[in-house]
Amino acid sequence: MDWIEFESMNVGRYYFTLTTLGDKILAAGGYTPQGITATVEVFDGSSWKLQNYELTSPRHSHCSVPISESQVMLLGGYSNDNLSLVEVYSIEEGFIAELPSMPTARRGLACSMFNGEIWTAGGDNFGYQDVVEVLTPGFTNTWRSGPKLTKRRVYLTMEVLDNNLVVFGGDGGVDSLEKLEGEDWMEEPLQYGHKQHASVSILCN
Questions:
Q1: Is 115 left (phi over 0), alpha (psi -120 to 50) or beta?
Q2: Binning pLDDT at 50, 70 and 90, where does residue 140 land?
Q3: Same structural domain for residues 44 and 75?
Q4: For 167-194, what is the mean pLDDT?
Q5: Greatest CA span in the chain, whole angstroms?
Q6: Domain at 30, CATH number
Q7: Residue 139: its pLDDT value, please?
Q8: Is 143 left (phi over 0), alpha (psi -120 to 50) or beta?
Q9: pLDDT tens across 128-138, in order?
Q10: How many domains does the chain have?
Q11: Same domain, yes or no, for 68 and 141?
Q12: What contacts 187, CB < 8 A, 6 or more positions away?
């Protein structure tokens, strides 16, 4: 497992989202030296290209969930205030639809698709959050409350590992993960502390 350097992005940014869609990677929003950006760029395997569309508003510290090989859902974040916004974008066409807002506006949250639903956890809304909210997509597009985390966490990450929903680290719980077991989160230690980090699920033999 070696690192290979590729061409840099067109816009230097942090607190943005990076989402794999099919054979491409989409970078959206974030914070730049010039301020919060609404720009979007796509990596095609060899180079980055700025898209001819932007997000409906500048934002950073949001989260993203791929919902197909060409569409991504962006949730929450921060613009002039914490956002509860939920939007769907096409990698080629840009904005498609706005879905019902999250009940709790927040930035620095984690999100993932799990059992056909969109799960969100943690974040910051004038204080670290232990809130978990779940969107059931489809005809109703309704939100419900899920089991609260054992710790209030912000800038955490979430992955589905071996059919289990897991959150990792974040301010408020840098040295632990939490795994959803039934209706309860079970905390386990991490070897190293992680906050404002990134995570990627990979296949292991």
A1: left
A2: confident
A3: yes
A4: 97
A5: 45
A6: 2.40.128
A7: 75
A8: beta
A9: 999 999 999 88
A10: 2
A11: no
A12: 150, 151, 173, 176, 177, 178
Q: Are residues 94 and 116 in the same domain?
A: no
Residue 66 domain boundaries: 1-99
Q: Whole-angstrom Cα distance, residue 175 to residue 22?
A: 33
Same domain, 117 and 199: yes
Tokens for 169?
């680290």
HSE, side-chain direction, 13 A CA sphere, residue 205: 0
CB-based contacts of 144, cutoff 8 Å, min separation 6: 133, 134, 136
Q: Same domain for 75 and 113?
A: no
Per cent of the chain over pLDDT 90 is 94
pLDDT score recorded for residue 203? 83
Q: What backbone torsions phi and psi does residue 132 show, to the nearest 5 degrees?
A: -125, 125
- 3 and 90 in a single domain? The answer is yes
Distance CA 97, CA 163 (A): 29
Task: From 99, 128, 157, give the residue that closes a domain.
Answer: 99
Which residue in this structure is represented by tokens 């990792």?
A: 168
For residues 16, 64, 107, 57, the Cα torsion angle rounded to the nearest 10 degrees is 70
Residue 99 in tokens: 């879905």
- Residue 52 tokens read as 């001819």
Q: What is the mean pLDDT of the chain?
A: 96
Same domain, 119 and 197: yes
> Which of 81, 99, 117 is the endpoint of a domain?
99
